[in-house]
Amino acid sequence: MGVALSPGAAEQTYWVGHLKVAEFQFAENRVESPSPDAGREFESADLTVYSFRVYQNPRGVVRHELSSISRNRGLEPGLDVRLFNYAEGYMTSFNKGARRAYKAPMPVPGGIATRLEDRQILGHRCKGLEMRWNDMNHYVVVIETWTAVDCDFRGPLFKVTKTSDQAGRLWSFSVEAIADLEKADHLEDSLFAVPAGLSVEELP
Length: 204
Fold this sequence. Notes:
Blueprint: E1 15-30, E2 41-56, E3 61-69, E4 81-85, E5 90-94, E6 100-105, E7 112-121, E8 124-134, E9 140-148, E10 158-164, E11 170-183, E12 199-202
Parallel strand pairs: 6-12
Antiparallel strand pairs: 1-2, 1-11, 2-3, 3-4, 4-5, 5-6, 7-8, 8-9, 9-10, 10-11
């Protein structure tokens, strides 16, 4: 798929594309017995790579649908599908076949916003924004996004998320990038709705 670069791009109402995500999780470890190095502490970093299909409807609702993951699936809730409603300011996520979906506000209430330098990404002029806040476990979360301002695609084309403790030690780092993006003639409304029968739990 190619990138829509025509003068009429700003009039586009439906979008399709792909998103690539690389996520590092850092950890402290200790060598266990009966190893001769038992008790020795060391640090490690685990990398997970995700691929998502991306869709957007005329109301500015963006759907991320998981298509592949580089590790075995765990019990992560809300990983298969994420619906971002930018107009109303919330995200809903759920797993296929699950009985519950999760709804959370965005951006996170109480976050501190800072403008970043503009960038050119996939042929689009993008506005940069940093959001910073402390989560419920007192970790410092920093999210940097670059979102196109010359078309009506609402999701960021590039996003960096960092989680550190209060001492500045980095515990997770992820990079998300739209790999390709183009217009579509029509998409089914069901792509942008929570399936019937799922209960929705609202998160703070």
